[in-house]
């Protein structure tokens, strides 16, 4: 019979925070063992209580800050510290991005054994109400006052009790209570697990996932909500293909404009798009500046989504090819190229994790390559990039650990040099680190 491991009881300890982890927790040592303290900042002395104890390390949460860092600020949100959406509201804006830069450089050094020749200045934008896309959990919890809507708690995985969300776009940030009240009136409240929110420049959409059919009166409630709040309402009964319009009867695609390149990008609410519109514009400008296509350069945009980088690139480069696994996104990217009158952008559906990679695009020379993979990075395609003989590679990353792993391959196996790297404040107050790196043949 399997023996159940006994949990060590929580203990309290006073520690001095030495540094920060990749996921924004304070690192300290207590009796020789590492302790990762949620809510603590470097330089602080805190009284904390363990939340998990193992033979190698402990995890803990702050009970009291005994000596505060000069970087500490009062969080704006009442759920900060509990809600898993934000991890850094207790740190001032400038120190947050500086800490993220340090996470990037530490990862590059420790995992990739590389250092950039130049550290790019951080790209920064608005710190609040920046998030245009989110998936909100929904749960009927009578003992917590009825329906909860929002993000999961850091520690438990249960939904956090929240009334508003300061990082959501203004069109959604004050909707948490109205949504809680709305779901409370719906006959199948227990069977609504999630609401997806998405906004373009001019319109916002709420997609209600429901596991049972809604009644006529439920649908009237949802329509009324959309009408009152000036938002479109969609219903999702199954997979992504089951999404249908409820209010109004026909819903236009969402759209964001990239005026600097005279491009507008259309998308459906569940398509991948960058969450922070301001930083996205700065990021595209920086990526294009760093990639610097010239003359008749052929450009490859890997993990291209709906064409966020591809279409601005098509305005300044001779030809661009976008590659992406999701055929629905490729279809949207093609339509976006037509809609913007761009005839020098083409798109190919390909799974860039399916090694050995294949496709005619791998048997051509590409002068400049941009890549923007998911969190798991791009190891499979990175292995093949030298065959394509790029003069420059610009790598946009949402995970410094996989960027560092892939940098190791490019630099130490394939002889590239890391000429520049820097962070972008795509997700203020959260633990997420967005970065950009440039590689050139050594
Ligand atoms: C971080 S997003 C970037 C999208 C786009 N560059 C943008 O800025 O909107 C990563 C993209 O990689 C795509 N993707 C995920 N897995 C993939 C795979 N195995 N092969 C190719 N593309 C993949 C996703 O569908 C998503 O569009």
CATH architecture group name of the largest domain: 3-Layer(aba) Sandwich
Low-confidence stretches: none
Q: Give the end-to-end Cα distance, rounded to a whole number of Å.
A: 59 Å
CATH class membership of the largest domain: Alpha Beta
Total tally of structural domains: 3
CATH topology of the largest domain: Rossmann fold
* Sheet with the most strands: spatial strand order: 7-21-22-20-19-16-17-18
What is the CATH H-level superfamily of the largest domain?
Vaccinia Virus protein VP39
Question: What small molecules does this complex bind?
Answer: S-adenosylmethionine
Structural class: alpha/beta
- Tally of extended strands? 22
Largest sheet: 8 strands, mixed
- Name the helicity range: 10-25%
The radius of gyration is 24 Å
Broad shape: globular
% residues in beta strands: 25-35%
Mean pLDDT: 96
Summed up, the helix count is 9
């Amino acid at each position: 019979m399997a023996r159940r491991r006994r949990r060590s009881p929580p203990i309290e300890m006073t520690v001095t925070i030495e540094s920060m982890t990749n996921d924004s927790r304070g690192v300290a040592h207590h009796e020789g063992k590492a302790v990762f303290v949620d809510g603590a900042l470097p330089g602080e002395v805190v009284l904390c209580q363990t939340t998990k104890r193992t033979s190698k390390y402990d995890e803990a949460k702050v009970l009291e800050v005994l000596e505060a860092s000069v970087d500490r600020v009062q969080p704006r949100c009442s759920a900060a510290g509990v809600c898993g959406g934000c991890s850094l509201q207790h740190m001032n804006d400038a120190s947050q991005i500086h800490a993220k830069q340090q996470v990037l450089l530490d990862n590059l050094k420790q995992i990739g054994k590389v250092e950039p020749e130049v550290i790019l200045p951080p790209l920064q934008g608005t710190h609040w109400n920046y998030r245009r896309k989110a998936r909100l959990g929904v749960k009927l919890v009578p003992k917590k006052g009825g329906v909860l809507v929002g993000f999961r708690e850091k520690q438990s995985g249960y939904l956090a009790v929240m009334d508003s969300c300061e990082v959501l776009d203004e069109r959604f940030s004050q909707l948490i209570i109205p949504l809680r009240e709305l779901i409370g009136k719906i006959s199948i409240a227990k069977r609504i697990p999630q609401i997806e929110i998405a906004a373009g420049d001019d319109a916002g959409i709420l997609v209600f996932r429901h596991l049972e059919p809604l009644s006529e009166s439920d649908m009237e409630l949802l329509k009324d909500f959309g009408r009152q709040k000036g938002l479109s309402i969609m219903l999702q009964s199954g997979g992504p293909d089951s999404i249908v319009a409820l209010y109004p009867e026909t819903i236009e695609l969402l759209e964001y404009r990239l005026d600097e390149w005279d491009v507008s990008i259309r998308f459906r609410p569940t398509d991948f798009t960058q969450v922070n519109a301001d930083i996205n514009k700065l990021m595209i400008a920086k990526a294009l500046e760093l990639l610097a296509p010239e003359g008749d350069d052929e450009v490859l945009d890997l993990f291209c989504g709906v064409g966020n980088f591809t279409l601005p690139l098509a305005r300044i480069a001779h030809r661009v090819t976008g590659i992406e696994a999701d055929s629905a996104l490729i279809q949207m990217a093609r339509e976006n190229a037509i809609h913007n009158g761009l005839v020098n952008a083409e798109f190919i559906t390909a799974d860039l994790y399916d090694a050995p990679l294949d496709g005619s695009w791998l048997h051509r020379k590409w002068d400049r390559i941009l890549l923007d993979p998911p969190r798991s990075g791009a190891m499979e395609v990175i292995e093949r990039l030298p065959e394509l003989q790029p003069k420059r590679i610009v790598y946009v990353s949402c995970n410094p650990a996989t960027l560092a792993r892939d940098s190791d391959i490019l630099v130490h196996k394939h002889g590239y040099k890391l000429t520049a790297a820097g962070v972008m404040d795509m997700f203020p107050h959260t633990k997420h680190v967005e970065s950009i790196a440039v590689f050139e043949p050594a």
